[in-house]
Amino acid sequence: MDAQAEPLKVMVVDDSRTIRRTAESLLSKAGCEVITAVDGFDALARIADTHPHIIFVDVMMPRLDGYQTCALVKNNPAFSAIPVIMLSSRDGLFDRAKGRIVGSEQYLTKPFSREELLGAIQAHVPDFVPAGAAPLAS
User: Fold this and answer.
1) DSSP characters for 34-100?
2) CATH number of the domain at 9-124, out of 3.40.50.720, 3.40.50.2300, 3.40.50.1220, 3.40.1190.20?
3) What is the band of 2 on the pLDDT scale with cuts at 50, 70, 90?
4) pTM over 0.85, yes/no
5) Domain range summary for the chain, segments of one domain joined by +
6) Which of 11, 27, 65, 111 has the fewest CB atoms lying closer than 10 Å?
7) Would you say 59 and 88 are in contact if contact means Cβ atoms under 8 Å apart?
């Protein structure tokens, strides 16, 4: 994304206020516009209004979990091209496979680092260059 373009819109969906704040802080410093949601229902309402470029979604949430949220995004033709990255404290093969089945592009394990978040964005939104930094090495 070039300097004149609008900031990259990143949605972070997590029922943990700490995770939302941490991701928001890391991503804001990299020049992203961060949209947060507390669960899948909140996220689905905000996606239609904000049209994020990429979505990070927690796997374990009340009401509508991350797998269900991802499946609903990917099954909607208006939003199916938005990359969805799963976030979870669980790192099992089954969890990762389930994420792929519902259409997620990547699976990050919590706690995540700034480099992991920005690396995931760069892998799926190739023109993104973090503010004040050279592109991350691939």
Assistant:
1) EEEESSHHHHHHHHHHH--SEEEEESS-SSS-HHHHHHHHHTSTTTTTS-EEEEES---HHHHHHHH
2) 3.40.50.2300
3) very low
4) yes
5) 9-124
6) 111
7) yes
